[in-house]
Every structure is written in C-alpha cells, then in structure tokens.
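Annotators were shown the component list below and the corresponding predicted structure, then asked to write short factual statements about the assembly.
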Amino acid sequence: MMPSGETAMAAVLIIPAIATLLLAVISSYQAGATINVVATALTLCASSLLVAVRPAPTLYLHVDDFNIFLVVLNTFVAFTTSVFSASYIAHELSTGRLTPGYLRFYHAMYQVLMLAMNVALLANNIGLMWVAIELATLTTVLMVGIYRTPAALEAAWKYFILGSVGIALALFGTILVYLAARPTMGQGMESMAWTLLVSHAASFDPALLNLAFVFLLLGYGTKVGLAPLHAWLPDAHAEGPTPISAVLSGLLLNVALYVLLRFKILLTANAAALAPGALMIGMGLVSLIFAALMLYRRRDIKRMFAYSSIEHMGIITFAFGMGGPLASFAGLFHMTMHSLTKSAIFFAVGHVSQAKGTQKIADIRGLTESHPILGWGLVLGVIAIAGMPPFGIFMSEFLIISSTFAREPLLAIPLVLGLLIGIGALVLRMQGLAFGPASQPNTPVEASYVPLFAHLALVFAAGVFLPDALVSWFRTVATMIG
Amino acid sequence: MHGLAFDVAHLLSGSLVLISLMLLYQDRLYSLLNIFAFHAVFLAFAVAWQAFIQGAPHLYVTAAIALAFKGIVIPVSLHRMVQRLGIHRQIETVVGIGPTMLFGICLVALSIMVMLPVTEQADALTQEDLAFALSVVLLGLLMMVTRRNAVSQIVGFMSLENGLILAAAGAKGMPLVVEISIAFSVLIALIVIGIFLFRIRERFDTVDVQVLDRFRGEQP
Amino acid sequence: MAVIADWLVQGMQMALVLIVAPLLTGLVRKIKARLLRRQGPSLLQPYRDLHRLLRKEVVLADNASWLFRIAPYVVFTAIWVAAALVPTFATGLLFSWSADLIAIVALLGTARFFLALAGLDVGTSFGGIGSSREMMIASVAEPALLMAAFTLSLLAGTTQLSAIANFMLSQHVGLRISLGLVFVALLIAALAENARIPVDNPATHLELTMVHEAMVLEYSGRHLAMIEGAAFVKLLLYASLMACVFAPFGMAAAGDGPLAYLAGIAAYLVKLLLAAVVLAVFETSIAKMRVFRLPEFIGTALMLGLLGTLLLFVTRSL
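Structure shown to annotators:
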C-alpha cells in the first residue's frame, strides 16, 4: 500500500521530533548515536516517498518541484553525517573533549536542527519559514559552543549576535511582504502563504516589495554567509564539532539561500518591482572574491574550508542573480554539488584533525603517507571543490561561467578571476597537507569512510553523467526561479 | 475618534523611539536595564492600543507577554545576573555617547524618510507605526554595534525585537502565529543567553566581548 | 483712539515685564531658602540690590575699552525687547507681528555675544574662562532653542508667538509627542541660558564652577545693575515663553476690554508663581553638574529638539 503524501510529509517532520524526545531521555551515548542514525535514515525514506506522492499544499506546508529535491538532499546529507558523527563522536569521548551528558544534548540538538531545516524547506507560510530558520540558528549556536573552550564560546556568541541581527532584519522583511500583500489578498493567514502570494504578486505594491527584499537579502544573506555579513561563519565552523561544520556548510547555508530564493521568485513575479538580480550578483561577487583572497592566509584547516563555503555560496548567489534558465540551472546544480562535496571534505577533515590532534595547517603534513585512505579522500575532495574535472562542480562552474560570458562578458572577468584565486589557494594548501613526509603524531583513527566516499562518488557520477530525470527536474525548477 | 486613535498610537510609539534613544544614552548597566523595562512597558501599551483600535483581541496576548516577560521577568533576571557577575560598573562604549546619539537621530530620520514614501498607500496609522518600528529596530542595531558588554548587547537585541513586535502589531490582521512565535523565541533566546553568560563567567570572569577577542585562534 | 489704546497696552506689557522680573527672581530665591528651612531674603531684595548698585560708583579696569562700557546697556536692551515681545497676558498686541520666535532667539544671541566679548575685554583669566564656557554652553543650547522653535513653528504653521499661542488653544493640537519633546528641550535650554542649577549656580562665587558670574566679575555699579537686571528679565522671558506656548490659558485676545486684560494679568501672575515654585523645587533637589558633563546634558536638549522636528513629519494627515 502506498502511503499518502500527507503521511509522508508528516513523517519527515514527526520522525525528528520523536527522535529529539527519545535522545533527550536516553543517556547511553552508543544508543544515542544509533538512534540518531536510524532516525535520519527513516526521515530519508519518508522524504524519498514524497518524490513519488505529493500532498496538496496547505496554508502552512507544501511540496513543490523546488523544495522536494532539497528535502531529499537535506535528509540524505543528514543521514550520512549522522553515520560520520557516530564514529567522530566516539573519538571525542575517548579524548575527553566531550562528556556523555553533552553528547546526549548534542544528539537531541542534532534532531532539532533536522526538524527545523525540514520545516523551513517544507513551509508554505513565510512566517513559519522564519520561525524555522530562527530555530535552526539557535540550535546551531548551542552546538557551536558545545566544547566550552573560550574560542568556542566566542564563536558561538558572535554567531548568536550576528545571526539574531540577520534574523531580525529578515522578520522585518517578512512583515513588509505581508503588508504588500494585504491590500490585494486581505487580512489573515492567506496573505502569508507563499503559493497564494506568488499567484497574486503581480498586483502588490512594488515599492514595499523592494524594501522588503532588501531586508530579506540582508537578513537571510547573513545566514547564507554573504560577504559583508559573513563574520560568524569561519568561527562557527572552526570551533564547533566537525559534524556540525558539515551540516552548517552542506545544509543550513543552502536552506537559508532557498528561503531567499523563494522571495526572489515573488519579486520576479511583480513586473514593477526592482530586479533582484543586480543585488544578488553584487553580493555574490564580493563574497566570492573576498573569500578567495582570504583563503591564502588561513592557518586553521576548518577555517579554510569555511571560507571556501563563503566562496561557493557567493558563486551560487551570483548564478541565481544572473537568472535565466541556464544560470539558474547551474546554480541549482552547484548548490547540490557543493553540499555533497563540502560535507565530504568536513568528514575527512574531522578525522584528520583527530588523527593529528590539531587543526593547524602547518602541523598537518603528508597525510597520504600516514593515512592513505583519508589523505586521498581529502585530496579528491579538494580537487572536487576546487572545480577540477571530472567532478560535478567543474560542470556547474563551467555552466555558470559560459552563461555569464554569453550574456554579461564583463561580469565574467571578476567571476573567473575569483575562481582562479580560490583554486590557487586550495591547491597550494592541499600539497602541504597531503604530500611530503608525514608529521607527528599519527594516531590511527576509527574512521567510517562510507559517507566520505559515497558523497565523492555521487559528485563524480554527476560530473560524468547526469540522469535525464534530474536534468529535466533542474530545468523545471530553473524556469520557476527565473 | 480617528484623530484620537492616531494621536495615542503616535504618542506611544514615539515614546518607544525616545526610550530607544535613552537606552543609547545610558552608561550604567542597572539604569540600562531599568530603561529597558520601560521600553517593554511602552511596547505593551502601544500593542494594546493597536489591539483596541484594530479590534484584534489576540494582540492583547502579545501585549501581555511583552509586559510580563520583557517588562518584568527579563529585567529582573538580568539585574540578578549583573549583580552575581559583579559587573555593574560603567559600560565601555566604542564611540562616545554624543556621536552615537547624533547617529541615532540620523537613523530615525533615515527610517522616516524610507518608510513614509514606501507605505504611501497604507493608512496613516500603519505608516507611522512602521516608520517608528524601523527606527526602533535600527537603534537597537546601533546599540548592539556600539556596545562591547555582553549584557548591553542583549538589551540592544531585545529592544530591536521590540521594534519588530511593534511592526508586526501595526501590520493590520497579521496572523497570531508570528507574534506568539516571537515571544517564544525570545524565551529560547534568553535561555541561550543565560547559559552563555554563566559559561562565560566560568571561563574567564568577564562578559566583555572585547576581552573574548583575545582568545580567537587566528587573527585575520 | 484705538491706536493709542494699542500703544498703551503694548507699553503696559513692556513695563510689566520690567517690574515683575526682579520679583520673580526674588520669589525663586525665597522659595529655595524656605525649602532649605532658611528665612531667606525678602521678596523685594532684588529691587533693593538694583537700587543700591545704581547709586554706586563704577570702577573700571585701566584697560577696559568702550566695548566694556556699552555692553551692559546693549545686553539689557536686547533682552528687554525680547521679553517685551513674548506675549504675557494678551495675544495680538501692537507689536505681535514682530514677536517672532527666531527674532527672539536672535536678540538673546546678540546679548550673549556682547556679554562674552565684554568678559574677554579686560583680559583677566576669569573673564576668559567665563566667556569660553558660556560659548561652549551656547553653542549647544542655541541650536536646541532653534530646533524647538522650528518644531513649534512647523506645528503651528507660523513663527509668531501670538499665533502659536492661539493655535495651542485651538482643537487642532491633539496629543503630540513632539510637543513633549520640545517642552523638555526648552526646559533644558532655559536652565542653561539662565545659568541655573545643574548647569551653573547663580549663587556661587566658587572659581572652578562659575560660568556666568566669572564673565561679569569685573563689572560694578550701574553696569552691574544693568547686567543683573538683564538676568532677571531673561528668567522672566523664559518663564513667559513656556507659559505662552504650553499654557496659553487665560490670555486676553486682541481688542478685549480692560477687564479681560486684568484677568490676563492675574492668570499670568499665577503662571509665574507656578514656574517659580517648580524651578525652586527642581534646583533644590538636584546637584550641579561638572562642567565637562554639560555638553552631554545640553546636547540632550538638542537631540530632543531634533527628534521633535523629525517625529512631526509623521502626522495624521499622511
């Protein structure tokens, strides 16, 4: 019997909620890790069901072409990360960086974060979207500070302050959108339902929509990590547990960008409103070039990849800012590839820093000699993220560059420049990390390589061959985003 | 009736802007917290008045939450926290109070200039409410930027949230979900904050964020 | 005939401010003394002081220039004219058209300018300190006064005090936060301009804290009488300004009979009494500020004035 779409959608949200409660009461950390893996696997199954059967949109939740894929990607990466987390956390416990009590908290928070992200993705109500993003922020703040070192607390505090400011601005933007909608759609819940908003958007007051978008771009842009508002991102990535860095980079940034794109669609639907593209292109390019330059002077390995995330978010924002079927297609593709690759890299980095007992780049050398599998995994990941063929990121970056050249050759110059600077930095650092004589200490790690190589294989496969179904899906959504 | 409705709303939300500026002017933690309590009380009145003139009873709930939670519970608990941490000395401001106040006035001017033309089609009540709300939001931001002390940053953040609630209340007929969720998230935020403050206290005996900066692993 | 009556009423106003001014200062001193459980000087003491000073010989410094000698008269005249322009017991007097808020601010500015110059003229260090401090205060207080004036005139659509008073009595005012802000701004500016606590202490001769007194330290005899008299009138001016703008009740309108004028005078005297009580209580209950804190305190008035003007743009006629 095929379950209905409503059941599947409910399951995507209820499973993390139940798991949270369970994890909050179970004190054994092994059981906690197992439940975590099982819960994320179940959520993944439920979200896959959503692909087949789609529930009718309600005023609060809906499933459409755009969010369904992101939900699947989200639950998939959540699942693989939970597998990685199980092996990572065991090591943290044995070195005494975390206590069982904190692990219980950690696992419960992990599920809350999943719940928040799934709600944000499935929400049809712009208010609910905002609530979910706020919940996700608060959860990650707690997780980033979990090690309780001064550096971790400072990172969490900075993240909290900047994140709250961003979120506050986003709420103001949301209120303005409601105000813009009210004259045409009347008062009440209907004026906050995205599916209804987009069908009426043409008659909204353009001035209000413009102002709203500026607030939303700044607000959610903070969560995406776009350049002037990115300060929290490197700290949060470097100081939190590595699974959280993977989830932050791979998922939460995407979710925030997704919400921003929803509003972009709204703005595009109104002919008189300002074209959101220019703003997004500007912020994207600035983030890209700034982050690429910052990559050179990094001494902390997780910080370095955090800056790489800013860079890629810049590229994606740029692509969506360019708009049009091809660039949006490339943007979606890049979003997916980056999510998979960056989380794979953090899986590798997590184990590397455990094996070497440090996150300092200068103290990590010759990984391919001391830990061949891990070392080569990291090398492959870096090659993929740098945008080398045959990996998927090469394809998406190629598409973005070629579509930019075709339409705005002048914009392509800084874009290519930024990409090249980024590649240079990554290759430079990778050589030191991976090759040459191995540095001490060389503790062997109980690593689970499956998530790492599963992600890399997917990225490789996407670079070589993209199934037709996926291509046609990307096309549909690209036309939707416009 | 309409004139009076507008006048009272104008008076209340205008006072909120004024109190936001007064928050910027304070340089002692205790008086900062007291003034913040006033801020919340005026917010409660402003929201209650909106509830009255819009005929939207659910806004009374928001007003009550603002009054009880932000007007009483949070200031009292922050008072205790400040006392326990022993940090009731002067707040170090990054910029002097004079320039900050001037900048604050400029922000008020900016938000009035931005909001009035944009909301031209709405009624006068919504217009003034939104313009003042944006001012309060921006002043809260300014406070967070100019203060180094963690407690005053929190106060800045909460005054910013007050501005948001004012905006939400002024947007006629905005569904209840949002208001309750705001109140709820403030609760969560306070828990987070509380945990943070105590952890910070445990580790290095200060809540001055500038001191924290020293501990960063890597200077850019 | 009517013209003569108008002249008479206007002349009455000019005489009234001159006669009542020392009484107001005496009243404030008396109330302050009583609040401190002292007997205090008689209400008429300011008159006696003036009388005594007028009879005394003028002692001039060797290097005092003509400026030093004419300054007291200029100061007194400017302030007297300004005070006579502010409607006290009646609106719509003969010179009402010139009772312009900005003109009044300008007259006060002129008086201050000459006083500061005179302080510098002799070249003693006290005079210099006094003048520089006075200018520091004025550089903030005067813009604050102007901002308040702008707010009021934007609100009433005119800068004429008499018209503003009539507007305030009308139904168009409503509840306005701008008015509250302007009131506080004017209050602070008035305290600063009249050298009252917390800005300055009119009764002190402590060298570190003097502002106004330091500036006029070199004056004696009838010159000092002029300056003291100007100070009395200035206090009265601010009191009647506040009364005229924020409590214009009981004022006679143009062309009302003598009875209405009498009632207006009675109302005016009651308002002055109230102002004296409030000022005395206020001064007794707070301490003087350090000089370095002054710009912040008076700056508040400027901020409030600015804010008042700004908030005015958000009106119900949107």
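Statements collected:
1. The mean pLDDT of chain C is 88.
2. DSSP finds eleven helices and no strands in chain C.
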